[in-house]
Predict the structure.
Amino acid sequence: MRPQVLIIGCGFGGLEAARALASADVDITVVDKTNHHLFQPLLYQVATAGLSAPSIAAPIRHLFRRQRNVTTLLGEVVAIDAAGQTVTLKDGAQLRWDHLIVAAGATHSYFGRDEWAEFAPGLKTLQDAFEIRRRVLLAFEAAEREDDPARRAALLQFVVVGGGPTGVELAGTFAEIARHTLPGEFRRIDPRQARVLLVEGSPRVLQSMPEALSQRAREQLNALGVEVKLGARVTGIDAEGLDITTAAGAERLHSRCVVWAAGVAASPLGRALADATGCTLDRAGRVVVEPDLSLKGFPAIRVIGDLAAAQSHAPGREPRPVPGVSPGAKQMGRHAAANIRRALAGQPALPFRYRDYGNLATIGRNSAVVDLGTPLGPWRFSGYPAWLFWLFAHVYFLIGFRNRFVVLLDWAWAYWTHDRHARVVSEASPGRDVTA
């Protein structure tokens, strides 16, 4: 039998690892609890009715249809036997492996207040996007029927918690929907009177960006009509809104639509790995890996992507943490595959080196910030040129020609008309999207 490579998760890291082993003399099994690969950087576009689900998702089986050494399975791994080299699925089935790549990703973190999830959904999956879209659009519908001014104001107040890229993108797009997409469609309310707030606990938005770009992002948010509250710590969330604490004291924000973009935690599979191997987890539940992305004492197990607390080991430099972004996951996937090839050839594993190509985030129509690393030094810009760069970069990395073509058409139409075609929701079935 050929060596068996098992890959858990088909996000950016898992997909790249499997593709990098296309010509290897191994049999690969890819296990994922969904049947699709998701382009997460554009997930907020589904949540805000800019794109439909098939535009940013592709069936995993379709992606590997021509890679004959890959078998795709729909299932959820619940336990890992490191000594016996097997994993157990939720339905009780077991899979054997000679080399294991764990790329299970991350989920939401409410910092120990998981009861908030009911009132403030996060954005990690298509189901999350459908639920956020449903809440946003039905808030406007409910406001149209509401006679009480206070309750109507609460329905038309949208709050995004977290000033990272996802929070900034959501807040900016909510403001665009209210001011450009919906006006003229209602008779009793003016959607332009909706209030969009971005609540961030730190002193600035986009902490991973240089301070100048962070300030520019805040200015662009303000220009779109988003109110940014910095240094605001959330102390409670319920069905009627949320409580925050700032330097000025406690404040109550009445809102029927709160979205959580403030915290990320590693997949629960990290705990299963710790139980099976004794590996160390960091505060976010990520697995602390060796320089070559393997686990200490278990060289056949490699952890990549958002689940890995990995460091970049560039020659002549101090190790530095790898950011939890898609380029990092892709590079780790390719590196894990390369080390499997080296192991099969009897060669030692190489340490992982992350190549940082920069950061970018869109804020809204014609508004974005870009921070690129170049051989000549950092290249930083914002506004319309940054928005164009962001647009074409994301289209380039989308899976499949059809996805790129459809997204370009949708964005071109939205740019000239302000229309968002994916505004179909089902109130009777929360979280289910009839356009998917």
Q: What stands out?
A: The radius of gyration is 22 Å. DSSP finds eleven helices and 27 strands in the chain.
